[in-house]
Amino acid sequence: RCRHLVSGYAIDSLSQEEEQEKEVAGSGGGGTWEVVVVGGRKKQRRRKGQKKVVVEVDHGDELDGDGGHERQREHPFIVTEPGEVARGKKNGLDYLFHLYEQCRELLIQVQNIAKDRGEKCPTKVTNQVFRYAKKVGASYINKPKMRHYVHCYALQCLDEDTSNALRRSFKERGENVGAWRQACYKPLVAIAARQGWDIDAIFNAHPRLAIWYVPTKLRQLCHAERNGATAVPAVSSSVSARTDHVTF
Amino acid sequence: RCRHLVSGYAIDSLSQEEEQEKEVAGSGGGGTWEVVVVGGRKKQRRRKGQKKVVVEVDHGDELDGDGGHERQREHPFIVTEPGEVARGKKNGLDYLFHLYEQCRELLIQVQNIAKDRGEKCPTKVTNQVFRYAKKVGASYINKPKMRHYVHCYALQCLDEDTSNALRRSFKERGENVGAWRQACYKPLVAIAARQGWDIDAIFNAHPRLAIWYVPTKLRQLCHAERNGATAVPAVSSSVSARTDHVTF
DNA sequence: AGAAGGACCAGTGGTCCGTA
DNA sequence: AGAAGGACCAGTGGTCCGTA
């Protein structure tokens, strides 16, 4: 239950490669730790319609004869009930929420360092915090994952009973994580409706939630729901595809 | 005294070129307006040690046969007493401070638009605000200028008497704007000292100042002054040159 | 020499899509 | 098919330095 978090902070910058050896992967919701290092290499991806020439650079056999190691991916999440430990190569939702608490601790450390140095002090979980997470060995924390599930954590913060009920219901029905994640939007929009639709204010009023950016899609859903129940695209499909872009 | 500010807001994006015709330059501190359009073109600058090949692209004789116009630069600031109107091709410090108030109004407009659209709402004067300023014709507002004098405006907000006294003193001694600007740091650091050194908190506590980012140099001076009066580099020289960079 | 501001650049927020 | 996350990209904060 008590997660390991490398404490203290080192002083100099650190490349991603330097991290590759000390891999730590969280397991279920329990206290187990697996340390895994696996081989293999990745290729660059190519962006759609990017047409640009990609030069394949081979980093193999460089100075460090040791060769590269590939970081093991975290086990996928499954829908678990509150308190339930995921079995097999899966992680449960208590563990997911725990990662958000860990990010908060990391942010606090980053803030303290910044204050000490007289530098500007982040109030949100920024890239700097994710970089710091890597640096102190919490390499299982990454931006795309944390941003992906922010609204799920928001529901957990703002209405734990509803969050728990949703988990039980989706587990019972054998739904996958993606379906559960989608379903988290609706009760949040309902909360926003009760509180005057200001989702930013709702996030900022909650001490653990205030450090997270409001996810774009949640913001859009609140906006759409407020402006007439007309043509509200059920929480399933992508709102962003329908967004008119009008800027200055 | 009552400055013109284009009201209402247009809907689509606007390139910089489209702005070039409706140039409005503020004059002194009075109510005069000069509308100036002058000819000429600029070249790209080349960055120091950049060695990269620069392709000169000629945009002349494009669709709009009218040809390009060059924006007239704003008149330089001179040190004026409170209430004093700058004469000749100069702008006074009341006008400088007025620009900060105008930025605040522009930010409020940008915020209202964002709220209407359900988009994220800036709390500070961001690039978006400067872009909006250009769009509504306030092309005499630009980021480098506003950032350059933020701490001078901060002093004006936080201690108007000291700010006024400093202006009178520097005018009397015939000092130029740069010297006055430098001198604004010291009383600000003194204010910070009295209030526990938290310059961010000081900015945020003031309604008109809270929308401005704390300037790097002011932050550094506060930090240096707090950490022992030892080796504090008189406000004159660059602090940034002495800054150790230690990041993650 | 003193000053205004176009334009650059490192690092951000946001998330796509090649990967497993 | 479902999911994790490396890596990309448009637009940011910050300010240098070519310009007048």
Description:
Two copies of one chain form a homodimer. Chain A is mainly α and 248 residues long. Helices cover 41% and strands 2% of the residues of chain A. In chain A, a hairpin with a 6-residue loop joins strand 1 (25-26) and strand 2 (33-34). The longest helix of chain A has 25 residues, at 93-117. Chain A is globular. The N and C termini of chain A lie far apart (49 Å). Chains A and B meet through helix 3 and helix 10 of A and helix 3 and helix 10 of B.
H/E element order of chain A:
HEEHHHHHHHHH
**If you average the pLDDT of chain A, what whole number results?**
76
Biggest sheet descriptor of chain A = 2 strands, antiparallel
Placed side by side, the strands forming the largest sheet of chain A appear as: 1-2
Determine the strand fraction of chain A and express it as a percent band: under 5%
Principal-axes geometry of chain A comes out as: globular
Largest interface: A-B, 27 and 27 residues
The protein's oligomeric status is homodimer
How many helix segments of chain A? 10
In short:
The structure is a homodimer of 248-residue chains. Chain A has helices at residues 16-19, 93-117, 127-135, 143-148, 150-158, 160-172, 177-183, 185-194, 199-205, 216-226, and strands at residues 25-26, 33-34.
List keywords for this structure.
homodimer, about 250 residues, mainly alpha, two-stranded antiparallel sheet, 10 helices, 2 strands, about 40% helix, about 0% strand, disordered N terminus, DNA-binding
